[in-house]
Amino acid sequence: MAIIVKPEDVARIIAAMPAETSSARLYFRQTVNKNTTMLALSDIKSTVGNIPVIKRGGRGVRPVMQADIEYIVPQPIEIDDTFSATEMIDYERATNMGKQQIVDEKLTRWAKVVRDTTKALCCQAMKGSIDYMMQAGDQLVRYQVDYGDVSGTEDAAKVSEMTVGSLVDAFEELAELISKKGVGGEYEYPVAHDVYKKVVQLAANQTKFNVTTGPGFIDFGGYHVVRDNDTYIDVAEDGVTKTTKHMLDDREMMIRAVSAGQELDFLRLDDTVQMQAVPLYSFTKERDDQRGTDLYVKAKPFPLVNVKGIAVKKFAAEA
User: Fold this and answer.
1) Can you give the pTM of this predicted structure?
2) Total Cβ atoms within 10 A of residue 167
3) Where are the alpha helices (DSSP H) in 21-163?
4) Which of 41, 67, 123, 276 allows an S-S link to 24, with CB 3.0 to 4.6 Å?
5) How many CB atoms lie within 10 A of CB 104?
6) Burial class (CB in 10 A: 0-12, 13-18, 19+), 97
7) Taking residues 49-77, what's their average pLDDT?
8) Distance CA 297, CA 315 (A)
């Protein structure tokens, strides 16, 4: 009995996944399925106001100058797995509920990997570029996207020296950086762990401003401060060296406009059967050697971010 993954299986897995809590991913409130494998730069510019450029090649070398590029081709997430012959025998003997559990276990694992990879791409996009590991044949190369420069400023003061007054000044300085670029509306302030700890401490020790708190955020004097809760693993081109990274480095504070045109696109997959763009697709095929059933999972997420609506401040290092 072959194991067949149906569209309703994928839909069930997506529906059962826990609510998204990633600060980086939640910034991309609008998600769009685009039934194309390429994005026209003219369309992107009309949406977010700036043009990302994907750098191709073993070390991310641009094949042509930006002015000559009319389309970009986002890269896919593709996962190959197998239901072993033993698992297929267990599947054949299982009840209907047991069969569903066998399928769900595999799909849930890989759906989480796709979700975590999407979050990592969103994390990097928040800083104006993507520089992520990508498999090319038997080598790891870099998948690189350049969205443009994110405004930044450095503060001579240390996080430990921060006062309520200097904190407000920092908020307003960042707001001015993006308002000068014509991006207004509501703002929010993601901050690194050490900065968030200091903000909470300052808020608790003052009485002039109203304070509201919740999971991972604090509203302080009209400023919505969000703790950076994102982390991901990056693997170097040697395939061995692993580095744990966050959206923000220590001592960093970010401002981002809530409505700056950002969106998360899911593009059409490189597939001859699934002809429509979907956030996640999976199918199976029985192996020719009769040793099991191959399982394939695909997705093609691409975050679009308007760097005009983002700015970052870096505080001085502690002695």
Assistant:
1) 0.88
2) 21
3) 23-27, 41-48, 85-93, 96-125
4) 123
5) 15
6) exposed
7) 52
8) 42
